[in-house]
Design a protein that fits this description.
The complex is a heterodimer of chains A (352) and B (376). Helix content of chain A is 30%, strand content 24%. Chain A is globular. With 376 residues, chain B is of the alpha/beta class. Chain B is 38% helix and 15% strand. In chain B, β11 and β12 form a beta hairpin. In chain B, α2 runs parallel beside α14. Chain B is globular, with a radius of gyration of 21 Å. Chains A and B meet through α8 and β14 of A and α1, α4 and α15 of B.
């Protein structure tokens, strides 16, 4: 009887008080977190414990599987280095990968706007097929809905993925310890800035393309090399590396100290950020991941990653310390430091 | 990256920091105001306070255009955009600034046609692309942004684009500095002068600060090395008992300013007799309006403007923070009712606002240091 009362949705306290949904609630930063933790989690996830990761771990008849879902509403549909179809496959494969799982199958939902030219759709379906082949994942089914012209922006894609857990790794912010190293797979900000420029609203151009790719080969190499020394992983999409690391800091109750000069950022991204007053740490990525690795495993991890194609730019960008607990601080070579928070608001609407 | 990395060179920064420590007399307390919000942001972003000795206190000035804009002006601007077929265009900085009925972004979520533009000429482009709509550009900024608004209006007039107007909130920096200096609770030793504004107005307009008020002022760039070098220059002056206008930002700021920009401003704008500044009150001859020759492009003349006046919440101490009397965290609302996500005072809205900068980059660090000290 008591368990029935506990799951009665009308009695669950709702902390989400924002009067209406705004773009910021989808931007992956603070507002998104407030919505998920304040409304979705208490009503939908009940008492399920633990921090909210990139994928859910579910036990099905004694087999541990990871499951995740992601929707893609990017504008424009195609951009240098990729398109919505590729993002939709890689995004879900990556969410599973950084949860320590290998994607086995995806199902796809298309929401299409009446009037969408067939060649546009065909190109995206082909892009998905290619990306799935590259990532070694099967697309096992799907669903299509069409809405009236003007009720959607060309096409939206949702992918749901299921995968099995990689052996020898457990992703758990609770296992993170002071002294652990923060590892980043490559330069940040490419995707977000590419999309911003592809919209053509700014009168400047840069030789830049989206980093969308499957990070699974890199994650597998890392897990093989460092095994249980890999404590935590995340792909820093919307909200950027700063938001992912702030979530980690909060979830493990420790401090994250980053060394600014170690953080790889391409000149074109830095330049755009300087001009627009943005921080590369807040810009979205679609083909990078962050990992916390035990110090005794870090050399093996770096070696293994730098041998995998696309892992050459791997960097240790910081470390875990006792203080400032629950926060991320960026330090500079000359001794200055600043706290870097989660993304507030929505600097770049709809970039994935 | 050229022209940036040179001014963030750790070796040069450490050397300059050493020189500052050598120049700052231990028995003396130096209070320097950085007038410009861009400097405030840079101080926090680069952690410059960690480098400066404790007896050099940086006080954040009024040079954040979003911060000093009274809430009533936002309501007025949004009321125009509530009319059918009007597009509200503004810089990104404006988008989260709350009016009494919410910010432009909140209005957008409710269906208002609100567009972020990166320059006034982008707003004019919107007008060309939407001939059946009226585009109103909500103009803010000091002399830094006023010339581009002026040039855009000149072009609109020349091309005869009539579905475009400007709701002008441009303000001028000198009267704000004067108001700060006239404030009875103000004890400042020197000014770090605004770099971007000075690219337009040059250095001459500051001469009275040195000559009449006997306060040194150094016009400064925005990179860490720029700002530290400006502190060195101010310390030299203060230690010698001098008061001069100096230009640290020579690579960008000509002493006489930008004549073409000043001409464009003179062609399009005239001074308002007075204008309300949030936190500072009414300041005479401190803001710009469009000249009558541009009445057709002046939103305040084309549309019925309600002229809303909103008093700031009593508990918010924006004025004191703006004048440097209080530090951001000393305000009763700081970090509790007033946060970057739910700003009550305007200083919490813009990333150049001292409260937002302090909240984003500093206050948890400060709390951490305090807790460590109290343990020790």
């Amino acid at each position: 009887m008591s368990s029935r009362i506990a799951t009665d949705a009308s009695l669950v306290p709702i902390r989400f008080r924002d009067p209406q949904i705004e773009m910021a609630h989808g931007a992956g930063g603070k507002a998104s977190r407030r919505l998920v933790e304040g409304l979705f989690a208490p009503l939908l996830f009940g008492n399920s414990p633990g921090p909210l990761g990139d994928a859910a771990l579910v036990d099905i008849g004694g087999t541990n599987v990871a499951i995740t879902t992601d929707s893609f509403v990017v504008k424009p549909l195609t951009f240098p280095g990729g398109s919505i179809g590729e993002l939709a496959v890689n995004g879900t494969v990556n969410d599973l990968a950084v949860s320590g799982a290998k994607a086995e199958a995806l199902v796809v939902t298309y929401v299409l706007e009446a009037g969408l030219p067939t060649p546009v759709l065909e190109a995206e379906v082909r892009a998905m097929a290619r990306a799935a082949q590259n990532a070694g994942v099967r697309i096992a089914g799907g669903d299509t809905k069409v809405v009236e012209h003007g009720k959607a922006d060309q096409m939206y894609v949702t992918t749901t993925g299921i995968g099995h857990r990689l052996r020898g790794v457990a992703i758990d912010p609770g296992s993170v310890r002071p002294g652990d190293k923060i590892l980043l797979s490559g330069p940040i900000g490419d995707h977000g800035i590419t999309i911003l420029l592809a919209r053509g609203e700014l009168d400047f151009e840069a030789d830049l393309h989206s980093d969308t790719r499957s990070v699974l080969p890199l994650v597998e190499a890392l897990v093989r090399a460092a095994g249980p020394g890999v404590r935590w992983m995340r792909d820093p999409t919307r909200g950027g590396a700063a938001t992912s690391l702030n979530e980690l800091a909060r979830d493990c109750g420790l401090g994250i100290v980053l060394f600014e000069e170690q953080i790889p950022v391409r000149d074109a991204v830095r330049g755009a950020c300087e001009l627009l007053g943005l921080d590369p740490l807040h810009i979205a990525n679609e083909g990078q991941f962050l990992a916390v690795v035990a110090p005794e495993c870090i050399d093996a991890a770096i070696n293994a990653l730098s041998l995998v194609s696309g892992g050459e730019a791997v960097q240790v960008i910081g470390e875990v310390r006792e203080q400032p607990s629950g926060s991320v601080v960026v330090t500079t070579l000359y001794g200055g430091s600043r706290i870097i928070d989660m993304l507030v608001g929505d600097p770049l609407p709809r970039i994935c | 990256m050229r022209f940036v990395d040179e001014f963030r060179d750790p070796r040069l920064i450490s050397k300059t920091a050493e020189e500052i420590r050598r120049l700052a007399s231990p028995g003396r307390h130096y209070r320097m105001m950085e007038v410009c919000g861009g400097h405030t942001h840079a101080i926090y972003r680069f952690g410059l306070k960690d480098i400066l000795p404790e007896n050099i206190e940086l006080i954040h000035g009024p040079g954040c255009p979003v911060c000093v804009l009274p809430m009533g002006r936002i309501d007025d601007g949004l009321s125009v955009a509530q009319q059918p077929d009007v597009i509200f265009a503004a810089f990104g900085d404006m988008m989260r600034v709350p009016g009494t009925q919410g910010s432009p972004l909140e209005h957008k979520a409710r269906g208002m046609d609100v567009r972020i533009v990166y320059s006034p000429s982008d707003a004019l482009k919107l007008a060309r692309l939407n001939p059946d709509k009226h585009v109103m550009f909500f103009a803010i900024g000091f002399e830094t942004t006023a010339p581009s608004t002026a040039l855009t209006l000149m072009r609109a007039k020349a091309e005869g684009i009539r579905n475009f107007s400007v709701f002008c909130n441009h303000v001028t920096i000198i009267p704000a500095i004067r108001a700060i200096l006239d404030s009875p609770d103000m004890r400042l030793d020197a000014f770090i002068g605004p770099g971007h504004v000075s690219t337009v107005i040059g250095c001459r307009p500051y001469e009275w600060i040195a000559a009449n008020e006997r306060k040194p002022i150094v016009v400064s760039g925005f990179e860490p090395l720029d700002m530290l070098q400006s502190v060195v220059m101010l310390l030299h002056q203060l230690n010698l008992g001098e008061a001069k206008v100096e230009n640290q930002y020579k690579r960008v700021v000509p002493w006489e300013g930008n004549r073409a920009a000043l001409r464009a401003m003179a062609e399009v704008f005239q001074l308002r007799p007075y204008f309300e500044w949030r936190g500072l009150g009414f300041i005479s001859q401190s803001a710009l309006r469009l000249r009558d020759a541009y009445a057709e492009w002046d939103a305040e003349q084309r549309f019925a403007i309600p002229g809303v006046r909103v008093t700031d919440p009593k508990a918010a101490q924006c004025g004191e923070v703006l004048k440097g009397v209080l530090k951001p965290h000393q305000c009763k609302l700081f970090g509790r009712e007033c946060t970057p996500e739910h700003p009550i005072g305007a200083l919490m809205v813009s990333s150049e606002g001292s409260c937002a900068a302090y909240h984003t980059y500093e206050h948890r660090k400060a709390a951490m240091v305090t807790s460590l000290n109290s343990i020790a």
